[in-house]
Specification:
This protein has 416 residues and is of the alpha+beta class. 34% of the residues lie in helices and 19% in strands.
Amino acid sequence: MLQTTRRKLKKWGIRLFWFAVAAVVVWVNYNRFYHNNFANYEKAVDYGRVREDKEVIRPVIAAVFYRTEQTKSKTLSAYLSRWKVNNLKNPKILIVPKIVTGGNLMEILKLYHDIKQAATFKSIMFIGNPDAHKHLLEHNFGAKVRLPKLSDNDVFPEQEIDEFLQQEGNLVVFGADFYGDDKDTFLIDEAVYLAQKHAYKVRVFDEVDTQLAQALEDNYASWFESGNEVNELQRQKKNLQEYINHYGSDILQYFTMNLDVAADKEAIWPDKTPETYRLFDRGTVYIRFFGNGNKEVFSRAKIGKNKGIIVAIVELARKAVAKKIQPISAYKIYLLTELEKIEKDINSPLINYLETDDGVYVQYKRRSALMTADERPDEEAALMAAIRNRIKLPDEVDDAQLEFYRFKTVEMEHEN
């Protein structure tokens, strides 16, 4: 073959190669744009941190000012300190949410319960709207509640409250919201002023979204000390449950529709609209399919793919249709939290690192497998045997060579 011919063939070969690459890129992007199935930036495990228009987040925030022998402080931040209930001997001022609702009632009762363990009161003065609060205070503390007159035209009874505070066994409660209107801000400022005047310390008692708190005021999160220790996986599990509460029915609808579509037909995708936008939040999905006799016939997870929830759901439904060798009588759909690596001591049983609702993800080189909490055995020997079997680990590979991760799941409820 002539050298000139070889050069021409090589030149056209390179051109054809890049043309093929460009064609594939165009086809892939056309397909993605056609279905508009790009995953959102938001993660489902962080649901609630990104607020929707229809979602109103109302943090439950309360503050307890109490008397101490320490010197006066001039700033609110100087009041912040840790305290135990049995060290709180003399509460003097409380700030509680101004309206009692089903969302904050348990937190208010918890606060009152903690205070009741440490102090008793002769008389209580409530500043604000007394609806519901008056009954709660009298019922929990067994003290008479005074209600000074407050109206838009009245001068705030600062002197009356100040004199009341100086009497032993008295407590002043302000009903005001930290995220409220100008009247709330005024009441909170008065409470802080009186606390500063008498050198009270402060404890902030809250159930609040930290990012929302930071949005209200710079470094506002430094006010808060949660009374309940919640680890990261528990937080993510709670968020996933809220996500399912809002979008579970829509996800199940598209899942079942795609199960009913023949393998040679196109998948059914939701259009990305303001109503369906959050279906494309990133997340990890695991689905188990069961056949006759409730025997598991197929399971698959989308891990580390950074896909939208609905995209993973549709793809797994279509995979099940393609693999189906017998009728599917039931299925279980799980949304997973992120994976948390277990720093396991070589001589310690794996089961010791797992909570009751923890699943296990195992990795060995390029092999991996997962097991949800309702799948895994409760005894160490059975658990490790099940893991080795699921990951198809050669006998010569020692357990010490495995990497273990834990996660939590939320199962989507459905009727078979």
